[in-house]
Amino acid sequence: QGVDLNADLGEGLGGRQLTDDEALLTMVTSANIACGFHAGDPSTMRRVCALAAARGVRIGAQVSYHDLVGFGRRPMEVPPRELADEVAYQIGALRVFAQAAGTELAYVKPHGALYNRIVWDESQADAVVDGILLTGADLPVLGLPGSAVHRAAAAARLPIVTEAFADRAYRPDGTLVPRTEPGAVISDPEQVIKRSVMMVTEGSVFAATGQRVPVAAESLCLHGDTPGAVELAARVREALIGAGVDIRPFV
Amino acid sequence: QGVDLNADLGEGLGGRQLTDDEALLTMVTSANIACGFHAGDPSTMRRVCALAAARGVRIGAQVSYHDLVGFGRRPMEVPPRELADEVAYQIGALRVFAQAAGTELAYVKPHGALYNRIVWDESQADAVVDGILLTGADLPVLGLPGSAVHRAAAAARLPIVTEAFADRAYRPDGTLVPRTEPGAVISDPEQVIKRSVMMVTEGSVFAATGQRVPVAAESLCLHGDTPGAVELAARVREALIGAGVDIRPFV
Amino acid sequence: QGVDLNADLGEGLGGRQLTDDEALLTMVTSANIACGFHAGDPSTMRRVCALAAARGVRIGAQVSYHDLVGFGRRPMEVPPRELADEVAYQIGALRVFAQAAGTELAYVKPHGALYNRIVWDESQADAVVDGILLTGADLPVLGLPGSAVHRAAAAARLPIVTEAFADRAYRPDGTLVPRTEPGAVISDPEQVIKRSVMMVTEGSVFAATGQRVPVAAESLCLHGDTPGAVELAARVREALIGAGVDIRPFV
Amino acid sequence: QGVDLNADLGEGLGGRQLTDDEALLTMVTSANIACGFHAGDPSTMRRVCALAAARGVRIGAQVSYHDLVGFGRRPMEVPPRELADEVAYQIGALRVFAQAAGTELAYVKPHGALYNRIVWDESQADAVVDGILLTGADLPVLGLPGSAVHRAAAAARLPIVTEAFADRAYRPDGTLVPRTEPGAVISDPEQVIKRSVMMVTEGSVFAATGQRVPVAAESLCLHGDTPGAVELAARVREALIGAGVDIRPFV
Q1: Of the CATH numbers 3.40.50.1010, 3.20.20.370, 3.40.50.10440, 3.40.50.2000, which one belongs to the domain with range B2-247?
Q2: ipTM greater than 0.90, yes or no?
Q3: B191-208, pLDDT tens digit by residue?
Q4: C96 touches chain D (CB under 8 A)
Q5: Tally of CB atoms within 10 A around D209
């Protein structure tokens, strides 16, 4: 029994570091690296790629809307063709640093508002997949189970990888409680740890309403940008290993 | 006897087109395509790459300082390591669209303030070459004869390609009269055409002071962003062909 | 009988000029000046403000989503509070240059995707009005008759100014035919001129379907970024004057 | 005996907060607020202005080169006229939020590479002062004693305010040891506290080489973006108060 651990990394800008990339890279097996559209400058991209490659952590392109000022949190009505081109641009830029680090780009995980949008927006989901295809690489798409982007990726014969969130509340239908609702984010570390282990070992989790919800995820998303994030990530990892789970990249 | 013709293309942004890319692509053999740092959005990059590839025009990465607001005209003291990473990022991004168009990126030509800076700044010249090497491709560097970036490229065993400017005045030592001086830019179309032919067929040109100056260039740079630019480019091309010159890419 | 003529100006960036600001300023009475979020750098803003003030042309803040790469053409789901702050920021920046030119900012006209969005989006319309109120100035809002932003402005006791488009097709209900539909933009100069005069002198125009539609506009929008735009603007202006219309600013 | 305490605030972007603005605002008397060119989005500017005004902390415009990706750390050769316009733009934008908070912009303190540049670059120093004058406000300039920008400000009859750095090593001539040299930054909290008190109560400090150097500063700069910054700022403040120093704004 095994699981991949992924986290957003390289979200610094101009020398300011937002996440403790070095520490998180000792815990995760997949690094979603910002590509410069919502965060991440070229030197940060290069540095984090080199660190990831040196530790055997897989490198994923964390593609985003072009919104540096808004950190990619604001949904945009980008025409599909334009969005595909923006995704391809970001993948091409990050690929240089993955290859310079002696490895290859391993997957794509959209960021923020784009991630949430392509859970349901078929047109933008298709555009993201078109952007990946433009790059000529059959990159797996890391995303929410049942999302539009996963359907689009499958239709284009791209591999899909499902993920779950240890610190997010689920609804009985398996979708996430939106962040705008109370209780959407679980802040108690003990709860997060318990849920992580349950998700991986039992393939389910308790919904906010009490029901057991199946959550079959190949990867668990850890958050790196909150206070105490690094320590919590370390504890989740330890708890999983203690429960006999093999922490390993999905690719 | 032959010569390459190059021009800056794809300098539009957000649907606004600055240069008549379609027309210029019927005249040049090498297209310096903006990579998003001084101009050029992903969709423009893709479109111009596709048009260039369809016509057999070579695609070059017109890398720049990161200065969209200033169109890359303002010199920046970017630390060399950072500059190398910025160059690699831009090349990686453009490469995706060259490959999607069924071809390969063929060369690099720095833009604006960066172009002028690395005529003499050894440190930034080395950084640009380091950026090219980071991408793993032995891309030729198109630049001014005798420039620091050409020395750096040669030292790194990258091919170098020299260029001349038909509409710029030269000093007796073969350098350009700076734009800040009167008479730096030659605006009379007849003069530009005459000088183009002389540069290519005789390998020399008259300096502002009257002396004949050797100008051995493998490529001639045409400007595409001035009124009448397209018509002038067409006339230069015709005059060269009329003088028995073979218009052909340098690679 | 009179009408105001407005046009988008100062949409250049980094020394590249998109519109012929000098020529257009001899024709319009109100200049919608870009504030740096979709186009327009500080030096362009200052220069165009000075030119406008010297000619007695009113200065309006052409506020936009923050999307330089997309020229503000892409709708964004900016939280209302954030949007209000972005509007206030742009107005504050432009106000400096209006005052430095010896005049005052006279009105606000949202740009592109934001303009279209606040025709119907109550929340963003309120946010734009909140942004204006934040600046402490009772600035008139130039917009489409019946738009949500006009309702919001009226509710906040801001003056509203209606505009019509001489080169756009109307539907029988007085709304514009969307640009995505055929015939949305009228390109025949004679038609544009005839409609301009009819709109102002008769207060109506023929819809695409043939009916006469009332169009009571205090300002007529001229486009400055198309080939032949300056010449067409001049002819519209002449035709209006010839029909006895007084061309005068609305404020 | 009194001194002003200033710190850089509002350097977040898109919801990410770089400095603990709330905590620092309980310690400083002057807040240098980022204006969107190196950091700081409109909502952050508004929020920090409101917090500062509520506490009676003075609001200063932390103007910068336009370099969001590089956090304003990279010197730029901006033509003086353009730089003046960029400074005026930023001041105008921030002024809106200061006024919305019921107060007025109180001073200007350039950021990062621009701050360092105008210690010696007369042309850019003049440009910064020209930018302030463009806004029509006689804003004091907070800067290094003896700097070119202070000479330019004095020549233009703008008030000047001198500052000292508690955590930076000084040379015998009163200039700072450059960050590129070892020992430039003093990281021992005890040393920083001791030097702060000595600077204010004795008007001097020990240079790296041991000599006593006169440091007559009206304001002491505290850094807010390092780990432990808030705690250190609190201790410096306490120590100063304990030594009988009155912590008060310079304006």
Answers
A1: 3.20.20.370
A2: yes
A3: 999 999 999 999 999 998
A4: yes
A5: 11
